[in-house]
Every structure is written in C-alpha cells, then in structure tokens.
Recover the amino acids of this structure.
C-alpha cells in the first residue's frame, strides 16, 4: 500500500500548533477535556494486556442496552480511524469496488485509494441540500461492489439523512451482498432530535463506526469502535486488529468506560452548550453578506460557501490572512476534495465568546480580501 498524507491532517490544528490559534473554528468536536475534569481513579488499574475485543463493560456501555446488539457485535479500536482502516483493508482488494459518498472524511477515501481498489464517487451538491441521490448509488452497483460508504450525521455538512434513505441503502447492500459502512462519529452530537439506535442494528450488512473523540472531547485517549452483527466478519475484523495493535490501552479503555457510563449527564451539558452556540451562529449567519449555507441538522459543523457574486475572492488569501493576522482557522474546502470557496465551520469546540470573535474575524477578513 502507498500512503498519502491528507490535507486535513497536514493542516490540522495539532500540526499547525494549538499555541498559534486563538479562535479555532475548524474542529468538528467539542472542546478537549482535561483528565482532572472527570472523576476516574486509575490507581488500582492493572496494566495488563487487555481483552482483544475491548473490555466487556466498555462494550456493554457502547451497545446502550440495545435488545438487538450484543457485546460480541462490538470491537473497540484505537480511535474511529483505526476502525475505518480495518474495514477498508479487510473488505477491499484491488479487484473490488467501493461506492463512497463525497464529501467524506479523508480516511474513507484515501485508504481505499492506497489499496488501489475500484472507486466510484457519488457527490453531494449544495443546490440539492446535500441529499444523497439513491438512484445514482443504485446505478453504480457492480458484481464486484463490496462496500458503500457514508457518514451520518454527515461530515462536513451537518446533514442528517432520514430513516427512509438509510433503509433504502441497507436494502441495496442486502440485495447485492455488500456492506454499508456508516461512519456515525457525530451521532452523539445530535442535539436537535431524539438519538436513534446505531444503524448496525438494522442488518448484519451494516457496519457502524464511532468514538469518544468528537462527542466527549476525548481524542487523546484514542478509543473508537465498530459495530456489526455478522459474526464471521467480526472475526476477520478482530484478526486485523490483533495484527495492527493486538489490544487497546487499558488506561484509555477505563477512561472511555467512565465517559460512557456517565454519558447522559455529560451530553446534557454538552448539548446545552451546542444549542447556545448554534443559536448565535444562526443569528450571525443571517446578518453577514458573503456566505450561504444549508443549515446543519446535527453535529457541530456546517459547510457554507461563498455566494456567487463573491466567487472572484481569492480564498487562499482569505485562509492565510485569517490565520496569520487573526489567529483564526476554519476548515477549507480542499480538506474534503471540494472547491476552496467552501469551508467547514465548527461551532461546538469554541466557547460562545470565542465563537463570536472567530466569526467576526472571518467576516472582517472577507471584507478586506473581497473589497
């Protein structure tokens, strides 16, 4: 496999240096927490090889009292990124075919490219409210199709695909004996509607992926998971994990269990913060003149673009000046293989005051470059 570094990683805040950024509107998560923020005692934790699937109590917490899922349907990994890598490298070979919905998280495209499999792209369009064209997906199915890949809630648009569409995709996967990968990393950031069960509950042909990185502000402990009801496939996924890392850090798993065990209280506080930020964000968006958006339905990101009359604006200059002169960043469109007139703006990571200042900086920067 030939690996390529992705722009979203090369230009990530951690690579640029958090100390150089004052107003971070690029993150698709909540603010990172401190270990001291949570009441977890690790003094008596034995630093042994952990259970290869992940400790049982953590897998039980992940399945959320589901009457359909069992703990054996869950594999805990070192972050959602490893789950996605395991899925791609297990299911795809050069002679296999993948259908991927774009924009998408880079790993869901770059790892299959490294495998050199056959890839068909179904693009989402602003003009169609970033809706998935199910007929386009259906028309691309081949005998060699092994995987259909989506994110839901969608990254970077904040679109939440409805249950009817999801069921159509599941039926497609079942009819053609392939898998539907649903990257559900932003599932717990659904602050506007009732939280739905993992889509993997619907069918053994579905693979759900998530983590504690985004919804709990804990990317530093590197805990994610994949869920699938196909026991044979889960055996293959476990074999892949054992060859990549064998097991997870037992320290990380213990902290992740604590977060999920206290999930209701944690998310109640987090959702209140997101709602307050989102209300201000909507007010700001209604008054600025440069950008248009498809209002996000879930998660903490949106994917606005420049209005047509400002397409002459040099966005390279905007992003450069925004960072160098205002210590502010957003996620430029090229992170997602889209035109640079698009940008991902995250409204969950900053405090309300940081959000206000960052959005003002973006507006002033656009004025300076456009006029």
């Amino acid at each position: 496999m030939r690996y390529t570094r992705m722009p979203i990683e090369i230009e990530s805040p951690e690579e640029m240096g958090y100390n150089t950024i004052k107003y971070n509107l690029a993150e698709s998560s909540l603010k990172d927490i401190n270990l001291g923020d949570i009441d977890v005692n690790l003094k008596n934790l034995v630093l042994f090889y952990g259970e290869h699937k992940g400790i049982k109590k953590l897998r039980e917490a992940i399945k959320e009292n589901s009457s359909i899922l069992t703990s054996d349907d869950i594999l805990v990994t070192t972050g959602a990124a490893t789950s996605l890598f395991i899925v791609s490298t297990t299911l795809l070979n050069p002679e296999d075919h993948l259908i991927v919905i774009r924009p998408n998280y880079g790993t869901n495209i770059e790892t299959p490219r490294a495998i050199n499999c056959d890839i068909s792209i179904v693009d989402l369009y602003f003009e169609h409210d970033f809706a998935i064209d199910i007929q386009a997906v259906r028309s691309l199915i081949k005998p060699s199709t092994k995987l259909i890949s989506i994110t839901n809630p969608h990254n970077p648009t904040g679109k939440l695909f409805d249950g009817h569409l999801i069921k159509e995709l599941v039926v497609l996967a079942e009819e053609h004996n392939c898998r539907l990968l649903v990257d559900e990393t932003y599932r717990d950031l659904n602050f506007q509607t009732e939280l739905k069960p993992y889509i993997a509950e619907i069918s053994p042909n579905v693979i759900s992926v998530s983590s504690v990185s985004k919804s709990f502000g804990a990317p530093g402990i590197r805990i994610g998971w994949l869920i699938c009801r196909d026991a044979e496939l889960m055996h293959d996924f476990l074999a892949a994990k054992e060859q990549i890392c064998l097991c997870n850090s037992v320290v990380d798993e213990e902290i992740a269990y604590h977060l999920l065990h206290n999930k209701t209280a944690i998310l109640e506080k987090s959702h209140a913060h997101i709602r307050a930020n989102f209300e201000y964000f909507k007010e700001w968006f209604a008054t600025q003149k440069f950008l248009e958006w498809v209002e996000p339905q879930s998660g903490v990101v949106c994917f606005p673009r420049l209005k047509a009359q400002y397409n002459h604006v040099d966005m390279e200059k905007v992003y450069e000046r925004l960072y160098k002169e205002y210590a502010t960043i957003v996620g430029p469109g090229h992170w997602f293989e889209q035109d640079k007139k698009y940008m991902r703006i995250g409204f969950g990571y900053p405090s309300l005051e940081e959000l206000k200042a960052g959005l003002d900086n973006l507006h002033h920067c656009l004025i300076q470059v456009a006029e």
